């Protein structure tokens, strides 16, 4: 497995080695030792695993968890094909407002790590696109917020041949500038503090 830093501070991309034979393919989309070396810290305690199934054109996000508590995520595409967006929405971040798009599919077998406070979105490029997540915090509805994935100031590169299918919540979500005006964005320094605490509990138990 190889790791690469993304344009968003603290976010990482991982590409797994595949093993193919006449039966098919075997791949390990997560490897703890590589992850911890790239992140420079221990694996976060996994609080929840999520799984979504989407048809072509579905856009989910931009989603994030209020901080505190915040939530880190490790995301990969188990089936299908998606264009995944990592968006820095942390006030005070050196990469605030920047994003990076990563193609997640069964060819490159890439995965993305999103640190606390970073926004996440994706567009399903095929029917039956399955996205799998490991998160450092359980889902609590009132702590989950959204920004518009169609915010023209961000300019996320949703393919022109895609007619975006959004939930009511995501369609009505504020732009990055509107969320900033309303005080809805996470603070970068606080997110770094929360990020540094990830994995400390599991270390102490060893």
UniProtKB/TrEMBL annotation:
<feature type="site" description="Participates in a stacking interaction with the thymidine ring of dTDP-4-oxo-6-deoxyglucose">
    <location>
        <position position="139"/>
    </location>
</feature>
<feature type="active site" description="Proton acceptor">
    <location>
        <position position="63"/>
    </location>
</feature>
<dbReference type="InterPro" id="IPR014710">
    <property type="entry name" value="RmlC-like_jellyroll"/>
</dbReference>
<dbReference type="GO" id="GO:0005829">
    <property type="term" value="C:cytosol"/>
</dbReference>
<protein>
    <submittedName>
        <fullName>dTDP-4-dehydrorhamnose 3,5-epimerase</fullName>
    </submittedName>
</protein>
<dbReference type="GO" id="GO:0008830">
    <property type="term" value="F:dTDP-4-dehydrorhamnose 3,5-epimerase activity"/>
</dbReference>
<comment type="similarity">
    <text>Belongs to the dTDP-4-dehydrorhamnose 3,5-epimerase family.</text>
</comment>
<dbReference type="Pfam" id="PF00908">
    <property type="entry name" value="dTDP_sugar_isom"/>
</dbReference>
<dbReference type="GO" id="GO:0000271">
    <property type="term" value="P:polysaccharide biosynthetic process"/>
</dbReference>
<dbReference type="InterPro" id="IPR011051">
    <property type="entry name" value="RmlC_Cupin_sf"/>
</dbReference>
<dbReference type="InterPro" id="IPR000888">
    <property type="entry name" value="RmlC-like"/>
</dbReference>
<feature type="active site" description="Proton donor">
    <location>
        <position position="133"/>
    </location>
</feature>
<keyword id="KW-0413">Isomerase</keyword>
């Amino acid at each position: 497995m190889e790791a690469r830093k993304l344009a968003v501070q603290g976010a990482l991309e991982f590409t797994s080695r595949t093993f193919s034979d006449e039966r098919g393919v075997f791949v390990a989309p997560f490897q703890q030792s590589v992850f911890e070396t790239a992140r420079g810290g221990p694996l976060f305690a996994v609080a929840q695993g999520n799984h979504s199934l989407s048809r072509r054109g579905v856009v989910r996000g931009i989603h994030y968890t209020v901080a505190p508590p915040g939530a880190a995520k490790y995301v990969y595409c188990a089936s299908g094909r998606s264009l995944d967006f990592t968006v820095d929405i942390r006030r005070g971040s050196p990469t605030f407002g920047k994003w990076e798009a990563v193609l997640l599919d069964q060819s490159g077998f890439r995965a993305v790590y999103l640190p606390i406070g970073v926004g996440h979105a994706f567009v399903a490029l095929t029917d039956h696109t399955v996205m799998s997540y490991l998160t450092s915090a359980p889902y609590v509805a009132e702590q989950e917020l959204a920004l518009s994935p169609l915010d023209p100031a961000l300019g996320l590169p949703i393919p022109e041949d895609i007619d975006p299918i959004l939930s009511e919540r995501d369609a009505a979500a504020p732009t990055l500038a509107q969320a900033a005006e309303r005080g809805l964005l996470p603070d970068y320094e606080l997110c770094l503090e929360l990020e540094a605490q990830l994995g400390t509990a599991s270390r102490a138990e060893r």
